[in-house]
Amino acid sequence: MESRREFAFKVLGAGLVSIAPLESCHGAGKGAPLPVVRRKDFKPAYLELARTGELDKRIKALKEIYKSCRLCPRQCGVNRARWETGLCRSTARAKVYSAHPHFGEERPLVGRGGSGTIFFSNCNLLCVFCQNWEINHRGDGTYVSDEEIGRLMVRMQEIGCHNVNLVTPTHIVPNIISGLRTAISLGLRIPLVYNCGGYESLEAIQLLDGIVDIYLPDYKYMDGAMAAKYSSGASDYPEAAAAAIKEMHRQVGEVVVDERGIALRGLMIRHLVMPENIAGTDKFVQWVARELTPDTYVNIMGQYRPEHEAHKYPAIARRVSAVEYQQAVRWALEAGLTRLDGITV
Predict the structure, then answer these.
(1) CA angle at residue 18 from 17 to 20, to 5 degrees?
(2) CA–CA separation, 184 vs 200, rounded Å?
(3) Which domain holds residue 237?
């Protein structure tokens, strides 16, 4: 298994880093051709908001949400500014597990320099089959200031990453955007990727308009009963994810790349195929084609494995079969999707 691992820069304290192994999430591939924009004509969206002072207003609005937390659809209402915690067990201070160039993401994010992933600790979904349960459930990591988050962003740029990939950002997005202000002052100029579980507050996503360049959400379930059973009672997941992803698409549209095929802007959706079609893949691909466009970049992911507490649930206590994955791909093709990660159509 060691050959499937990559080295990560694990955050210690005060922004220091050391080398530690972290398993790659999944493979990448190519789909139908993507629109090309010359790199020299691209400017990250957040620079304009910083120039006009709008970024400071957004940071203030996001931090206000901490006083009665509604950063995700759970709407816990706790005062995180006073160290109260809800289901995600986070206060108004962010915790980071690692920051490193990742080469297992979708090909347009990786290129030659990798995607600059920053893994944030804790999570607002807490899925029973979580593959990063030490980070998301147990909360492993180190507390960092907003300024340290900004310095980590710039570090990803300095080591040659093509973007800053914010992994599990939903519950601490005010800290991240506050840190972005520091990063901009230190010269950050690469795209910002919002890599989330799809269970997002529409209010928070609207406040990210003009800040995020690339949205990378999961769309995990089409059935609220399945979401409730396997993701800590999130019965409204299908509706919440649909509303948030449609807003993401409105903001950034389809994926566009530079001359090297590196993503600069756009929406990329991940969908994990699960045993017995628990994720509702057939309904998901139809939703994308109908509610977004057939040209939406979609990653039909086949690497489900029964991690964490999945063994307690017979229906998901096994890997996805080749037949199940092939059926998922057929559904996507039948729905007319033209940009499938890893599949040439």
Answers:
(1) 125
(2) 25
(3) 2-340
Query: Does residue 215 sit within a domain?
Result: yes
Name 266's bridge partners.
214
pTM value surpassing 0.70: yes
Is the dihedral angle over the CA atoms 251, 256, 155, 135 positive or is it negative?
positive
Domain at 305, CATH number: 3.20.20.70
Structure tokens at 117: 């992933």
Determine which helix (DSSP H) or strand (DSSP E) holds 301, and give its type and residue range. strand 297-301
Q: Would you tell me the crossing angle of helices 237-252 and 281-291 to the nearest 10 degrees?
A: 40
H-helix or E-strand spanning residue 201 = none
What is the enclosing helix (H) or strand (E) of 222? none
State mean pLDDT over 32-53: 93
- The answer as to whether 345 is a domain residue is no
Q: For the residues 29-56, what does the mean pLDDT come to?
A: 88
Question: What pLDDT, on a 0 to 100 scale, did the predictor assign at position 31?
Answer: 56
> What sign results for the dihedral spanned by CA atoms 213, 216, 222, 228?
negative
- Is 328 a member of any domain? yes
In the predicted model, what is the mean pLDDT of residues 255-275?
97
Residue 123 lies in a domain: yes
The count of structural domains within the chain is: 1
- The neighbour count for residue 321, using CB atoms within 10 Å, is 12
Look at residue 342 in the predicted model and tell me its pLDDT: 67
Reduced DSSP (H G I as helix, E B as strand, rest coil) percent helix, strand, coil of the chain, to 5: 40, 20, 45
Q: What is the pLDDT of residues 116-133, one digit of tens each?
A: 999 999 999 999 999 999
